[in-house]
Amino acid sequence: MALHHRCAHGDLTALSGVWRTQNFLKFSFPSAPFGCCVSHRKEVTNCYLYSTEVHVRHGELSPQAAVGDLSACSYADGSCTLADGSLLIWTPDTEEACKYIFVSRLTGYRWDTIWVSDDKEFALSWSNQSTTFWDCVKELTLTDQGYAVAISRRQPRGVPEDVGMVTSNQLAAQLLAVEGATYSSVSVFYRNALRLLCDRTSILSSAFHAALLTQPTITMRLLLDRQDISASYLGNGHVQVQRCVALSPVELIAFNTTCYSLPRVQIRLPSGSLLRAFMEQATGIIRRQASPLSCTEVSPIILHTAKSVRVE
């Protein structure tokens, strides 16, 4: 019916995207008095054929379509009779039963557990302990990146059992071929390793410059492993580093009518006089000035000590 557009009730004709037979109901009323008080029944049957799309989610048995409920159908059967008597036919896709689908066939070089494609755009890693399984009549290996690969294994056609002394240039040619193949593999490996090292160095340099721009003091303290310095970024890769002088314990002073971006402290100088200033929580550096803020916008102050102290 779907192939030849013909059914048991006649040939099908296309009309507005629907194939159907042209069987019309024809009847005539009997003349009086023969049609009185007698019921007459007449029926005609037509076939309809139209296309639709059948979808199925991976792992589910029943398909889905816009023509009706297919929960009682099996996608693998390729056909199903619906509740209204209509028949739905489709061709099952064999890849729907596969957990992994084919993406591409690639060639490249493998060094230990690392494989790199010839165009250097794709890399995978797996080892002899990686998970292997069968999927759609294929033996696949699960890589560390989540891909499944089918490894081509080439077996030699035959190996002579007895090998005698080589008196020609055959051995030299074989060794030269092995040397060339080894050189190509090793050169690709080192070239990719050098490129990876350069990329990591570039990322580290960018992160280091960003850290100097935002937090120069903390960055230089971690870099030099010294807590008695203060740093400022001058631009163009230049940093000014100054040595700090340790002070006696400071005393926190509460804000009155005006609040500031830094906590207010009172310091006793070696001369015995008292100095009121502001202190950075992260570095412990004393500043003479701080930006005034509305007291409703001031967040809680946290001082980094052996035991963090929160000041409301």
Please identify the structural class as seen in this structure: alpha+beta
Kindly report the average pLDDT value. Answer: 80
Biggest sheet character: 4 strands, antiparallel
The percent of residues in helical segments reads 10-25%
Beta strands, count: 25
Low-confidence stretches: none
Radius of gyration: 41 Å
Alpha-carbon distance between the termini? 82 Å
Question: How many helical stretches?
Answer: 2
State the order of secondary-structure elements, H for helix, E for strand.
EEEEEEEEEEEEEEEHHEEEEEEEEEE
Spatial strand arrangement across the major sheet: 18-20-21-22
- Tell me the fraction of residues in β-strands, as a range: 25-35%
- Seen as an oligomer or otherwise, the chain set is single chain
Q: What spatial form do the alpha-carbon principal axes imply?
A: flat
Protein name: Lipocln_cytosolic_FA-bd_dom domain-containing protein
Structure explained in plain terms:
It comes from Haemonchus contortus (Barber pole worm). This is Lipocln_cytosolic_FA-bd_dom domain-containing protein. By secondary structure, this protein is of the alpha+beta class. Among the domains are: 108-149, no CATH class; 247-311, no CATH class. Helices cover 17% and strands 26% of the residues. It is built from 2 helices and 25 strands. The chain starts with 5 loop residues before the first strand and ends with a strand.
Write the layout of secondary structure elements.
Elements: E1 6-7, E2 10-11, E3 13-15, E4 18-20, E5 48-49, E6 54-55, E7 64-65, E8 79-81, E9 87-89, E10 108-111, E11 114-117, E12 123-125, E13 132-134, E14 139-142, E15 148-149, H1 170-214, H2 216-224, E16 229-235, E17 238-243, E18 251-253, E19 259-260, E20 264-268, E21 274-279, E22 286-287, E23 292-293, E24 301-303, E25 309-311
Antiparallel strand pairs: 1-2, 3-4, 4-5, 6-7, 8-9, 10-11, 11-12, 13-14, 14-15, 16-17, 18-20, 19-23, 20-21, 21-22, 24-25
